[in-house]
TrEMBL record:
NCBIfam families: para_beta_helix. Residues 23-32 have a biased composition (Gly residues). Keywords: Repeat, Ubl conjugation pathway. It comes from the Bacteria. This is Right-handed parallel beta-helix repeat-containing protein. The keyword Repeat applies.
Length: 448
């Protein structure tokens, strides 16, 4: 046995801190207490006091344990294979997992019930945080798009939480939930994602809530691919990317087509930031894009200052965009507020608008000609417009550093977080139109 292994074992036996009667942190509650020791205790493993690296500490942890990390830069990739572990930093900005632009992932969550909280992940060639049930994704086998797993059967990781995480300057995605369900991504910050800041892919039903996040200076702020069924993107600030939000279908992932997501109460603004990584499909100046997605509800979002279009609905070459409902949103100062365009023979049906504040649509007059409700088989009209050309981007490693972000409450004093088997889902009727200042305190990019 190596000296390092002996030291880790000794730390596990002699220096673990027993914590009894711990609370659930900032979680939604729920779950069970079967992660406790027979005497009712949980264990806190401290890094570096009890284990020299985060990976060493995670390897010692048992279900229900908390791995609590002291401030420092940790040059490693952390993989969590044990269920119901909490990985938490004592300081969100001070605990940094740095991939040094040579490791693919900062944190890989490959077990259910895991919480990742209050730390920063940066400089990974693929992902800051990867949550997945896909062995191919864990092994780094997906193709250049980050998600083609070939003939691998779909296995969905069940239950996760990513909270108060800063993910910056990563080569594909900041926070990436792929082939996972029953989870929450909340109160996090992503920037410099060369594909997107937050990505949810290949799940149905997802039962995933993406809420109260700031995603800026990415190619795309949020992307959902083949992700639907209790899929909620609510209350986020998606400002100053190249594209704010997309929900789409893609043959590179399974479980297509995308359908049945709720996009509500988000601020989606000024998505034509030049000092960002280039978007692979050349997207620029778009607030919301629906590409081959169906049965989505887009409700009470504030979509403003996107120089190409506030919201675009289009279709892939063989997957239609049907029955999307766009209701009670406020569109201001966009190149085109709402544009429906189908450059191939594939068309949409049953798409409709109701109660929106808007100025321009393509084709003209959609607020009256496509007013909800419309028959499910009603053909969706199509038009075209001239949008601005996308400028060259910058390397993801050169995106400006994040501003200070809020800390996880009681990070060093509360116990492990109990991740519920199924998250509480938002009541859409209770989600209000956001103010232009939504989550501005944690943002670099201000709305115009």
């Amino acid at each position: 046995m190596s000296r390092l292994a002996l030291r880790v074992v000794a730390a596990a036996l002699g220096a673990l801190t027993l914590v009894t009667g711990c609370g659930d942190g900032d979680s939604d509650g729920g779950g069970s207490d079967d992660g406790r020791r027979p005497d009712g205790s949980r264990v806190t493993i401290r890094v570096p006091a009890d284990a020299p690296t985060i990976s060493d500490a995670v390897s010692l942890a048992r279900p229900g344990d908390l791995v609590l990390v002291a401030p420092g830069v940790y040059r490693e990739s952390v993989r969590i294979d044990t269920e119901r572990i909490t990985l938490r930093g004592e300081s969100r900005a001070g605990v940094v997992i740095d991939g040094q632009v040579r490791r693919p992932n900062g944190v890989v969550v490959a077990a259910p019930g895991v919480a990742v909280e209050n730390l920063t992940v940066r400089n990974n060639t693929h992902n800051g945080v990867l949550v997945t049930g896909s062995a191919a994704a864990i092994a780094g086998l997906p193709g250049s798009g980050g998600y083609d797993t070939g003939d691998e059967p779909v296995t969905l990781l069940k239950s996760f939480l990513v909270s108060h995480v800063t993910a910056t300057r990563n080569g594909l995605y900041g926070i990436y939930a792929f082939s996972a369900r029953n989870g929450v991504i909340e109160r996090s910050y992503t920037s410099g994602g060369a594909d997107s800041g937050i990505y949810v892919g290949q799940c149905r039903p997802c039962r995933i809530v993406v809420r109260d996040n700031v995603s800026e200076l990415n190619a795309v702020g949020y992307e959902g691919t083949n992700a639907g069924g209790d899929m909620y993107v609510v209350g986020n600030r998606l400002v100053g990317n190249r594209v704010g939000l997309t929900t789409n279908s893609d043959h590179q992932e399974k479980l297509l087509p995308q359908r049945d997501a709720v996009i509500a109460g988000n601020l989606i603004a000024d998505n034509q930031q030049r000092k960002t990584p280039e978007q692979a499909d050349g997207g620029w100046g778009i607030g919301i894009g629906v590409d081959g997605g169906s049965d989505n509800r887009i409700v009470r979002n504030r979509v403003t200052g996107n120089t190409n279009a506030g919201l675009v609905i289009t279709a892939t070459a063989d997957l239609t965009a049907d029955r999307n409902r766009i209701t009670d949103n406020t569109f201001t100062a966009n190149g085109v507020d709402i544009g429906w365009t189908f450059p191939t023979a594939t068309r949409g049906q049953g798409n409709c608008l109701e109660g929106n504040e808007l100025r321009t649509t393509v084709p003209a007059g959609l607020a009256s000609t496509a007013s909800c409700p419309v028959p499910a088989t009603s053909p969706t009209p199509s038009g075209s417009w001239r949008g601005p050309a996308a400028p060259a981007g910058i390397p993801f490693t050169e995106v400006v550093a994040p501003a200070a972000q809020p800390e996880f409450p009681g990070a060093g004093t509360v116990g492990a977080t109990v991740v519920p088997d199924t998250p509480a889902l938002p009541a859409v009727a209770d989600i209000a139109l956001p103010a232009p200042s939504l989550l501005a305190d944690g943002a670099r990019v201000r709305t115009s």
